Amino acid sequence: MASRFWRWYADREFYKWEKTVLWDMIETYRRPRSFAPLISIYVAAFYTGVVGAAVTEQLYKEKYWEEHPGEAVPLMRPKFYWGPWRVMNGEVPPSK
Q1: What transmembrane ranges does the database entry give (predicted)?
Q2: Alpha helices (H) along 28-81
Q3: Which DSSP letter does residue 91 get?
Q4: 76 burial class (0-12, 13-18, 19+ CB within 10 angstroms)?
Q5: What is the pTM (predicted TM-score) of this model?
Q6: What is the H or E stretch that residue 21 is in?
Q7: What is the pLDDT of residues 6-41, one digit of tens each?
Q8: 68, 75, 87, 89: least buried by Cβ within 10 Å?
Q9: What whole-number distance in Å separates Cα of residue 4 and Cα of residue 10?
């Protein structure tokens, strides 16, 4: 019985370093983090912007119709673009 115990103890001590080496090698190869939360946030932000733009344009049209009933609504100037605006009176000028 004692020899069996010492054999078990010796095997355990001898093979312990192999277990740690193997697990240390495997532990470095972890599964990469998922991009699903990031992609879902981007999709939600995109559609929030689309809905926001549609609501803003509809409010613009309703306000214009209240002030000018029966007229065609001109194009709405972009909110966050401060560059040159080439549309005059709701009509795109002819190309030269």
Answers
A1: 35-55
A2: 36-67
A3: B
A4: middle
A5: 0.52
A6: helix 2-27
A7: 888 888 777 776 667 666 776 666 677 788 989 999
A8: 89
A9: 10
